[in-house]
Each structure stands twice: as C-alpha cells, then as structure tokens.
UniProtKB/TrEMBL annotation:
Record-given protein name: Amidase domain-containing protein
Annotated keywords: Signal
Stretches assigned to the Amidase domain: 56-329
SUPFAM superfamilies cross-referenced by the UniProt entry: Amidase signature (AS) enzymes
Record-linked Pfam families: Amidase (PF01425)
InterPro entries: Amidase_dom, AS_sf
Gene3D superfamilies: Amidase signature (AS) domain
Tagged with keyword Magnesium: no
Organism this protein belongs to: Oryza punctata (Red rice)
Signal sequence, renumbered to the chain: 1-23
Length: 528
C-alpha cells in the first residue's frame, strides 16, 4: 500500500514536501542492510539516522510481497495500521533525540513484528483476524489485544500482521502436514522446500529465517516453537508456562501452552513477560521468576563457563552413522577439536531420563486425554470473549467444517481431534488421573535428574526433548547447530526447570557466539 501522503489530494507545496520526505526515507533505507537485521542493528540504524520505522515497514512489506507467495509464512497484513504506528514511532524518536526532556525510546520502538495467527491483535488500522489457520474464524474480531500484543505495543513494536501456522496448532487431526492451514496453504522451509517447516509456529520461523521481518512471536504446547526454530535455523525461546500471558490467545492446554519468540529472542522475551490479570493464576505464579533488570543482562559470551550440563544421549542423540549431525555433536561433546563445551566437559555427564517411552507417547502419559478436554474449554472461552464472530463454540466450528470441506487432498485427514475434544465434558476423573500421572513423570524424571545431579541445564538435539519439557511447562532455548548434507538445518536445545531462563540464556548465547553457524537461506528456489 502506498504511503498516506501519496494517496491524498493536497496542496502542491505539501505534496512536494511529502515526496521529498519519501525520497529521503528511501535513500536511508537503501543504505541499511535488511538481510539478517537484528533488533540491535535496527536500533543503531534508527539512532544514526540511516533508517526510519516507516522505511523499515515498507522494506518488510516489499519483501513479504516478493517472497510470501512461495513461502506461505504470512496470513494477513495490516499495512495501514503498521505505517501509522511506524510514523508515531518515528515522531517519538525524533522528540527523544532532539531533547526537551522526553524519555528515551522503548526497547522495540518502531520495530515490526509478526504474531502467530492464534494471537489476537485488535489495534492498528483494523483488527486482524486471529483464526488459528481456520476459515471458520474469518471475520471474527477480538475485543482487545492479547496480553503479549499489548506488551509488544507498549514496548514500541509495530504489529505488521499475522504469521501462518498448522491449523488449530496442529490439533485438527493426525497426519496433516506440518505448516498447513486452509487460510495460508502449505508453509515452505526456506532452506529446502521439500523439507518440513515443522510444527505449528512454522510461519513465525519461516518469516524470521527468510528475513521477512526481524521479530516474530509463536506459541508452543509440545514442540511448536522448538521444532520450527530447529528446522528453519533460528533461535527460539519457549518460556516457562505462565511467564508470558495466554490471554487473548487460542491455546490447547493451560498446563503446557506458552507464548514465546523465534527471533531476536531475548529482547522480545523481555518485552512480553509479566503478570496479566486475564491469565492471573499462571502469570502470578511465574512472575516470581522474572529477574530484576531483565534478561539482556544474561547475554554473556562466557556464559558456558562453570555450567554443569546433563547430556541426554540415550533416546535423543540418534543420527545415522557418519552423518553431519553425528560429527557436529561428537565434536561438541567429545572435544575432538575446539568446542564451546571444552571449558566444562569435566562437569558434563551423560544421563538417561526414566520412562521416556511413556513421556513420548501422548496416550500412555495421559497428555492426549488432558489436551482434548482442555482444548474445548480453552477454545470455547476464547470464542465467548470475541467482539464479533461467526462461530461461538467448538461445536460451531465442527459444523462449519462439515459444510465447507477443506481442499480435496486434505479431506482424508478429517477433524478427529476436534470431534474427540467436543466429546469431552470438562476436567473429570480421566483428566485428573492424567494430571496425576504427568506430575509423577515430571517429579521422577527431569526434576529428579536435575536436582540429584545439580545440573544447570540438559542438552538434546533439535526438538527431541519437546515432550519431556512440555509436560511440566519447562523452558527451552534452541540454537542453530549446523546443516545436514541435504541442506536442512538442525539445532541444539538447552532445557531446564521452571524459571531457569537466565541460565539458559547465558548457555545458549555463549554457544551461539562460539559457533556462529547460522546462515541465511539462499532462497534460490524462490523468486524475489
């Protein structure tokens, strides 16, 4: 969409002034390197006068227009709202830098962000749909911003639009390809188009990896931040459940769901954590974990030094003999040559989590039964709070799907999870038994292993520990670790107990800085 000044009939003098300003913005933006831009590099460009927020929004809108028809990472954009917010950010920054006693710009001032399509964003030029990828929710309007979106706006972020996802956060039916939804189509891995983008926050990871925006927000129940971050070569933080509010977010399980970030992770985490009365119980409990002074203080290049790690080799490190993955992880953990772990390998140990076969089986562990009941309760509650909506219950959504079949190649998958969820009746004896079993698996598993061995973190490849970390609401950070022989990215994961984000950030940042393996996709398969 054109800038507002170019769409209005103004006096000749005003039009000329607007054109001159637009030309200045374009020249400044041309000097700025968009690819691999970070929050810090953008802030420097703002401060040095090389870039305006309006110019940055226009650059990202152009890149989305060029790439998204092939990548399917974006569901919906709000260009008018984003450009208006960018202009406000530019004005606030000018006021702050020109003096007059104004406060310095907030952390994310003028920086565009994409939020996953299950997160309500009511502000801007017009409320964005939050549809969880479903056509049934097109036309719905939230009464207000989700808690995390409100915090993003207060931190100065510009909401550019919504990122694609697996429909219903991959909870429509088993077998549906990861990253697919009726609204956005099939999300594509920007490194290897035939490879999976993985799990439900796929659009957030694809967009970040392809530099379609610097900041993206995702959500995770069980692997939905960790897996796409790994397969798309971006850093992802899955926070402790309750550290970020789920108010105004379509979730599956209050026990396990958390809102996190898959790019410029620590800056964004700092902006979105905190108590929210609309998600009071979870956020009140988790607020005790927020460190005074925020999370950026833990971006310590020597953060690995002195840490005690548990390497989950059994059941997790399973690679083909001679594979790139095996060589990379052997180098890190066996100190064949320089490794970021060589500082503390005497304090690292190989450990085995008991009952991993049960934890990894959602039916045996009780996770599936609990998720089915919680999804219906959570979704119906979310729908009841919408300002307008064509559907008001899970039952309405099932009816909509029956009347409007999805594309033919998806028809075979049906909507079995939705049907099974609709058949539940709250948290009854079956669900309480599942909760008790999950609690026991946590206490005798990760919590005991870390306590007995006095660990700072556990280490696993990619998203292999997603269920282990999901069932207890534990945090994790995934960091790019390399690229397989076919070019598909893979990652390393650092996980810990609730509230261990400061330690995990130190470890993950130190590893990232010691290895620096992340490289942008060449996008030779896509037309820019």
């Amino acid at each position: 969409m054109l800038p507002f000044a170019a769409r209005c009939l103004l006096l000749l003098l005003a039009a000329a002034a607007a054109a001159a300003a637009a030309a200045a913005d374009a020249a400044a933006a041309a000097a700025f390197e968009l690819e691999e831009a970070t929050v810090d590099s953008i802030r420097r460009a703002f401060a040095d006068g090389e870039l305006t927020s309006r110019g940055l929004v226009e650059l990202y809108l152009s890149r989305v227009a060029a790439l998204d028809p092939a990548l399917h990472a974006v569901v919906e954009l709000d260009p008018d709202g984003a450009l208006a917010a960018a202009d406000r950010a530019d004005a606030a920054r000018r006021l702050a830098y020109e003096g007059g006693g104004a406060l310095p710009p907030p952390l994310l001032n003028g920086i565009p962000v994409l939020v996953k399509d299950n997160i309500a964003a009511a502000g801007g030029g017009g409320a964005l749909n939050a549809t969880c990828g479903s056509l049934a929710l097109v036309g719905s309007r939230p009464a207000g911003d989700a808690g995390v979106v409100d915090r993003l706006r207060r931190a100065g972020a510009v909401v550019l639009g919504t990122a694609s996802l697996s429909e219903w956060c991959n909870f429509r039916a088993p077998g549906i390809p990861a990253g697919w939804s009726p609204r956005a189509g099939q999300g594509k891995n920007p490194y290897v188009p035939s490879a999976t983008p993985c799990a439900s926050s796929s659009g957030s990871a694809i967009a970040a990896a392809a530099n379609m925006v610097a900041v993206t927000i995702g959500t995770e129940t069980d692997g939905s931040i960790m897996c796409p971050s790994s397969y798309n070569s971006v850093v992802g933080i899955k926070p402790t459940v309750g550290l970020t509010s789920r108010a105004g977010v379509i979730i599956i399980s209050p026990r396990m769901d958390t809102v996190g970030t898959v790019s410029d992770a620590v800056h964004v985490l700092e902006a979105i954590v905190g108590y929210d009365p609309r998600d009071a119980d979870a956020t009140r409990m988790a607020s005790q974990y927020i460190p005074e002074g925020g999370y950026r203080q833990f971006l310590n290049i020597d953060g690995l030094r002195g840490k005690r790690l548990g390497i989950l080799r059994k059941d997790f490190f399973q690679f083909p003999s001679g594979s790139v993955q095996q060589k990379v992880f052997d180098e890190h953990f066996n100190t064949i040559s320089f490794s970021p772990f060589s500082w503390f390998l005497d304090d690292a140990m190989e450990l085995k989590i008991p009952n991993m076969n049960i934890i990894n089986d959602a039916v045996q562990s009780g996770e599936r039964a609990l998720m089915l009941a919680e999804f219906k309760l959570s979704l119906n509650s979310y729908l009841s709070e919408l300002a307008t909506s064509p559907v008001r219950s899970l039952s309405d959504i099932i009816d909509f799907n029956n009347k409007h079949p999805v594309e033919e190649r998806m028809a075979e998958f049906g909507q079995s999870y939705l049907l099974q969820s609709e058949a539940t009746d709250g948290i009854g004896p079956t669900e309480k038994k599942a909760i008790a079993k999950l609690n026991k698996l946590c206490e005798s598993g990760l919590e005991k292993i870390m306590r007995v061995n006095q660990l700072d973190a556990i280490v696993s490849p990619g998203a292999s520990a997603h269920s282990l970390l999901a069932i207890g609401g534990y945090p994790a950070i995934t960091v790019p670790a390399g690229y397989a022989s076919n070019g598909v990215p893979f990652a390393i994961c650092f996980g810990g107990l609730k509230g261990s984000e400061p330690t995990l950030i130190e470890i993950a940042y130190s590893f990232e800085q010691a290895t620096k393996v992340r490289r942008p996709p060449t996008l030779q398969h896509f037309v820019i």
